[in-house]
Amino acid sequence: MGSLGFWRLAQADPEWIAAVDPDGTRHAAGDLLARANRLVHGLRGLGLQDGDGICGLVPNGVEGLVLYLAALQAGWYYTPINWHLTGPEIGYIVADSEAKAFFVHERYAQEGARAAEDLDPRRRFAFGRVEGFHPYEDLVEGQPSDLPEGRTNGATMHYTSGTTGRPKGVRRRLAGLDPDDSAELMTFLLGMFGITPGRPAGGAPQAHLITSPNYHTAVTQFGGSALQMGHTIVYMDGWDAEECLRLIQEHGVTSTHMVPTHFKRLLGLPEEIKKSYDVSSMKWAIHAAAPCPVPIKQRMLEWWGDCVWEYYAATEGGGTVAGPQDWRAHPGTVGSAWPISELLIVDDDGEPVPAGTHGTIYMKMAGTEFEYKGDREKTEENRLKGFFTVGDVGYLTEDGFLFLSDRKADMIISGGANIYPAEIENEITLHPKVADVAVFGIPDEEWGEQIKAVVEPAEGAPPGPDLAAEILASLDGRLARMKWPRTIDFIETMPREPNGKLLKRKLRDPYWKDRGSAI
């Protein structure tokens, strides 16, 4: 294969600045390579073998990057964990992934320590001070910095929540490739957008801005692929619209991955601030994760020019891409199928429907067989003749452009994050004063959707603000705050069919009645 891949590039040019931390600290590729190598040697000393897994509860920055680079050259699975989760939720992922080592940053010490209660203390490591964890330095001290023997490709294993509320690890078979060759194959993702390797002939090095938490699949894939192409990774630690513009200007950022909420915040800045930063270096502002209102996309194109790209995809693989010209010709589209991906729109009986007809969206991508770890039944349940679905609904035009018309009936997309009501309902229903509960998304101008709970109080429990506050307080420590309902309404009797099926649309529709689409 060619000359892409972090490990090749770092050996050829160890002084290349591969990453910039949120505090502005710059990290040379040679230093990151040495750190990743020492970590591989250290973990192999603990007995880790090909196919094993490690988990990281770490903020955006090089700590997580080193874990990623170590796993991807040692044949391991790396699972970055959502730091908004509570101890039991984190502990479930650590246990389910069968992690042989768990790394926690001191920023998340409290929930990280709760998550590790059942994990062998010899396999807990901390960046900073975390009670009951060994310092990371103890693991790598004295380890050689040279490339380990028997290098083979690893992979990330992200957890994606299902409608049952328990997250599932999306696990792909490891191919046994040279890590750099595997990394070079990964870069096809960026190639679909026309992104080129790091340093154009005679030009400045390219940089990729990470604007969202590194535990999201897309953030890892886009940032990781950009690094494998020789781009500098610039990390943000939390979103701030003006800071985003400042970093684009300072580092000559050429690509980034955003969600529509970011666009809304950027457009909301005062005109004098927007005009005071030079964003002309940006060539690929790629967005996904939630539908982008047509007027917001149009305003971004007017401001940043034809660098705004969109795609639709899932952790499981496959998807569409819409370049600026495609989108201008088909406003609102999420694009046409990737070169190695296929789309299928079917009715409720699984039969294909004609162009322009709404149906469930199925996708498949060549060479990306996956399974939900430990759940073959769920894996098969979402498949149809080699295609899979995440339950979204849409239609294709005659010329192959996909439009989303609705999505998984219950999933809430708030600020680009997928939130699954079943998990929230399962916690609220445990409250002794709750007879029944329904959770769904309602319109929110800033976040796209906010979480609404409708509760049928138990007999003798008076509805009102006091009960709402009591229900929310009961979620503390059991459910991440990002999943808490913003508001709770009360209802005398929940609308259910005789078979017990909840008619959630009856509850949700009044909140969406003035909207063009319930998305």
From TrEMBL:
<dbReference type="Pfam" id="PF13193">
    <property type="entry name" value="AMP-binding_C"/>
</dbReference>
<dbReference type="InterPro" id="IPR025110">
    <property type="entry name" value="AMP-bd_C"/>
</dbReference>
<dbReference type="GO" id="GO:0031956">
    <property type="term" value="F:medium-chain fatty acid-CoA ligase activity"/>
</dbReference>
<feature type="domain" description="AMP-dependent synthetase/ligase">
    <location>
        <begin position="7"/>
        <end position="366"/>
    </location>
</feature>
<feature type="compositionally biased region" description="Polar residues">
    <location>
        <begin position="153"/>
        <end position="164"/>
    </location>
</feature>
<dbReference type="Pfam" id="PF00501">
    <property type="entry name" value="AMP-binding"/>
</dbReference>
<dbReference type="InterPro" id="IPR020845">
    <property type="entry name" value="AMP-binding_CS"/>
</dbReference>
<dbReference type="InterPro" id="IPR045851">
    <property type="entry name" value="AMP-bd_C_sf"/>
</dbReference>
<feature type="domain" description="AMP-binding enzyme C-terminal">
    <location>
        <begin position="423"/>
        <end position="501"/>
    </location>
</feature>
<keyword id="KW-0436">Ligase</keyword>
<protein>
    <submittedName>
        <fullName>Acyl-CoA synthetase</fullName>
    </submittedName>
</protein>
<dbReference type="GO" id="GO:0006631">
    <property type="term" value="P:fatty acid metabolic process"/>
</dbReference>
<comment type="similarity">
    <text>Belongs to the ATP-dependent AMP-binding enzyme family.</text>
</comment>
<dbReference type="InterPro" id="IPR000873">
    <property type="entry name" value="AMP-dep_synth/lig_dom"/>
</dbReference>
<feature type="region of interest" description="Disordered">
    <location>
        <begin position="138"/>
        <end position="169"/>
    </location>
</feature>
<dbReference type="InterPro" id="IPR042099">
    <property type="entry name" value="ANL_N_sf"/>
</dbReference>
